[in-house]
Structures are given as structure tokens and as C-alpha cells.
Design goal:
Amino acid/polyamine transporter I; 18 helices; mainly alpha
Length: about 450
């Protein structure tokens, strides 16, 4: 996020990811990155439409999920054809509901943990029994059967893609930079707030879930695909609060609609960025009277129809495919953002632009970005290890189809265009720089405490 923020405030362009990779590293990388990122959001749209159906089935289990997929496909698609201001207004109210709910759930969790529920005082007893980390692949034939610490670490590593999938979307501020009012002020502000939002909406919420629900609770381990398996609902049921699961389920419904809305918006803007870079057909840049790229919206939204695959008997397997494809594609995009930032810093140095004069400075560089690139690559390459022991062809393609597609796109574009790599001296650091003449570098804090305060907003 901070790596992208430094580039997005200096060169705020629509569909920024593709443009940065193409400008600073290689047009083939921008091509492959843009299309894999778009693919991720198009697939996620189908995933979120499926989730809306599963959530509503909590109340009306006998109705076909395809009905709800169709209804919300039309609703979200129509919403994205409207002015961006309407999209922003809808997201504001959806976000407000999420904020109130998360804060309420954290307060609820504190009260229940302190003894307000049917279980009495809980504390951290579930971290000892059955344990905070579960061993994985410990059957008799496994080499992990007699190595419990390693089996627990393997269990942790096996869920990184699912965890990473939940964080995808934080980078949307970079996509919207080209349509943001005063991006030099508002983009850094949004970047700095990301830390606190992750702490509140992810870390504290997961902490509450972890202390309220034992990991071997049968409701977490069953084979149902409705919202009864949601840890929020499970926590409320364990506490004996009968009405809360319905409220939580209703809020989850708005959360999923918000995510689906963002999927179409971000996917369409990535297509616009690709088209502007010459990596997608130019008709995708056509806009209506409100400035909405309607062709890009329609093309992205069409992939939501893949949600109807869940009408088959193997709907749960299709759902898992979607999660893995989107999750790995997100890690690939984050890796490319990091590589683009490294190349950006080198280009600034080569062309005499001092980083301390930039509108926003990413902290702890270049080590911070190298750290992110290294771990993203490690996770991408190792996240499908379970498909190798024993070998499972279906699981292998589920885990690595996004990586395979990315390599095919990159190599294919490179062989077709023979485009050269971009040197630091030739990297384009001028096009798209808004307010270039009016912008005057701000004075930056020089003390360590001042730098920490500035970074935290």
C-alpha cells in the first residue's frame, strides 16, 4: 500500500497498476499484470454474487441460489452504469454499516468473553484447549504425524491464500487515483488510514473470534454452505443470543453487496488503464455522459454470470476454485506493485528526482518493498504444497492456475511484441502528473518522531 501510494500521488492515473509496471519495468509485465488483476476482480464478482445467495439462504433455505445471483447481478451492474458519485454514496453507506457492526461486534466479544454469555467467563481458555493453532496433515502416512510443531506451522501456511483474499481491495485507492479530487492530499490520507483500518476491521475482529469460538466447534467444520458456518453467527449462537445471528447475517449481506460493487468498479477501471496503454481494445475507453466507461463495465460484469456454476452439484468446489484463483491473482498483483515501486525509485534516482521532495514518501525504503515482494513470491510458489503430497491434479490447477495464466500472458506478449525492458533513464515520470506546475514540495519532518507521526497521519 505504501509503495503504491508513493507512485499514485506522484503520477495519479486511472488504472494505475498497469501504467506503473509498463512505464518503469516492461510493457509485457504491465500487460500481464493488468489482465491478471482484472481477471481476479471479474472472478471475485462471481464469488460475491454466490455469497449473496448463500447468505439469503440462511433465511429461506428452500429457494434456489440462482434466483438471488440473477437479481443481484442486475442490481450491481446497473449501479455501476450510474455516475461515480452514486457509486461513492452507496459505498459510503455500506462502509458505515460495516464500521458500526465491527465496533459493535468487538464490544459484544469483550462482554461475552468477560462472562455475559451462557459460557460464563471465557478468557483465553480456547487457546489452550483445543489450541490456537491446529496441526495439519497428521494422518498416519504423513511425515508430520510425529512432528506436532511443524504440523501446526503447516496448518498456518496452508490458509495464507484465504487470508490474503480477505485483504484484497485495500489497493483500490490506487485505481481510483485518476478520478480522485486532489489526489496529492487525499490518496496519502487514505494510505495512512489503511494501517488503522486493518488493525480495527481485521486484527481485533479476528482476535474476538479466536477467543470466543473453539477451533473444533462442529459448526465451523460442517459441510453446509450457508451463513450458519460464519464465525460471527457461530459466536452469537454460542453466547446464547438468539436474535444476533439474524442481524449479523443481514450486515454480512450489505458487506458482500459492497464488495461486489467494488469488484465491477475496479475491474472496469483496470480495463480502461489497459486500453490507454494499448494492451486492450480502445472501445473499452468509451464513456457515457457521466464519464462511466460503460463498455468496460459491461465486459467485467459479464463474468459475474459464472456464479451460476454454483447451481451444479459441485457448487462448493466451484466456490473454492474462485477463492483460490482470486487470492493468488491478488498476490501476483501485489508483487508487481512492489517491483514497480523498486523500479520507480531507481528511475527517480537516475533522473535526478529526490524522493524527499515527493508528495508522499513510502517509509523504510527500499527494504520495506523488498520484504513485501519476497514474501509475496514465497507464498505464491508454496501455497499449493498440499497438491503434491499426495499428487492431486485438480488441486494443483486450483492453486496455480492464476500463476500459469500470468506466465502465459507475459511470455506471449513478450514474444509477440518483442518490447524492450525500460531503463531507469528512459522511464516516463512526467505523463499524468496533475498540478505539475502548481505543485510545490512540502517541508518534510526531519526527526524520527516527526516522521512516525506523519506516516501514521
Amino acid at each position: 500500500m505504501v509503495a503504491m501510494g508513493e507512485m499514485a500521488t506522484f503520477i495519479p492515473v486511472s488504472g494505475a497498476f498497469t501504467a506503473y509496471a509498463s512505464r518503469f519495468i516492461d510493457k509485457s509485465l504491465g500487460f500481464a499484470m493488468g489482465w491478471i488483476y482484472w481477471f481476479s476482480w471479474a472472478i471475485t464478482f462471481a464469488l460475491e454474487l454466490t455469497a449473496t445467495g448463500l447468505i439469503i439462504q440462511y433465511w429461506v433455505p428452500d429457494i434456489e441460489i440462482g434466483i438471488f445471483i440473477g437479481i443481484f447481478f442486475v442490481f450491481i451492474t446497473a449501479l455501476n452504469f450510474m455516475p461515480v458519485s452514486i457509486y461513492g454514496e452507496v459505498e459510503f453507506w455500506f462502509a458505515s454499516i460495516k464500521v458500526v457492526t465491527v465496533v459493535g461486534f468487538i464490544l459484544f466479544g469483550i462482554c461475552i468473553n468477560a462472562g455475559a454469555g451462557e459460557k460464563g467467563y471465557i478468557g483465553f481458555k480456547y487457546w489452550n484447549n483445543p489450541g490456537a493453532f491446529n496441526p495439519y496433515l497428521t494422518d498416519a502416512s504423513s511425515i508430520l504425524a510425529n512432528n506436532l510443531p511443524l504440523a501446526k506451522f503447516v496448518g498456518f501456511w496452508a490458509v495464507l491464500i484465504q487470508a490474503g483474499f480477505s485483504y484484497q481491495g485495500t489497493e483500490l485507492v490506487g485505481i481510483a487515483a485518476g478520478e480522485t479530487e486532489n489526489p496529492r492530499k487525499n490518496v496519502p490520507k487514505a494510505i495512512k488510514q489503511t494501517f488503522w483500518r486493518i488493525l480495527l476491521f481485521f486484527v481485533l475482529t479476528i482476535l474476538m473470534i479466536g477467543i470466543l469460538i473453539p477451533s473444533d466447534d462442529p459448526n465451523l467444520l460442517n459441510d453446509t454452505t450457508d451463513a450458519n458456518s460464519s464465525p460471527f453467527v457461530v459466536a452469537a449462537n454460542l453466547a446464547g443470543v438468539s436474535v444476533l445471528p439474524d442481524i449479523i447475517n443481514g450486515v454480512l449481506f450489505t458487506v458482500v453487496l459492497s464488495a461486489a460493487n467494488s469488484n465491477v468498479y475496479s475491474g472496469s477501471r483496470i480495463l480502461v488503464g489497459l486500453a490507454n496503454e494499448g494492451s486492450a481494445p480502445k472501445f473499452l475507453t468509451s464513456v457515457n455522459r457521466w464519464g462511466v466507461p460503460y463498455n468496460a463495465v459491461a465486459f467485467t460484469a459479464a463474468f459475474g454470470l459464472l456464479g451460476f456454476l454454483n447451481e451444479s452439484s459441485s457448487g462448493g468446489e466451484v466456490f473454492n476454485w474462485f477463492v483460490n484463483i482470486s487470492g493468488v491473482a491478488g498476490f501476483i498483483s501485489w508483487t508487481c506493485i512492489g517491483l514497480s515501486h523498486i523500479a520507480f525509485m531507481r528511475a527517480c534516482e537516475a533522473q535526478g528526482i529526490v524522493r524527499s521532495t515527493l508528495p508522499y514518501i513510502a517509509p523504510f525504503q527500499p527494504w520495506f518493498t523488498w520484504y513485501g515482494v519476497g514474501f509475496n513470491i514465497l507464498i505464491i510458489l508454496t501455497q499449493g504444497f498440499t497438491s503434491f503430497v499426495p499428487w492431486d491434479t485438480s488441486s494443483f490447477f486450483t492453486a496455480y492456475i492464476s500463476l500459469i495464466l500470468f506466465v502465459v500472458l507475459y511470455v506471449g506478449h513478450k514474444l509477440w511484441t518483442r518490447c524492450p525492458y525500460v531503463s531507469s533513464l528512459e522511464a516516463d515520470l512526467l505523463s499524468g502528473r496533475k498540478e505539475l506546475e502548481e505543485w510545490v514540495p512540502e517541508a518534510k519532518p526531519t526527526t524520527l518522531w516527526g516522521k512516525v507521526c506523519a506516516w501514521l497521519g
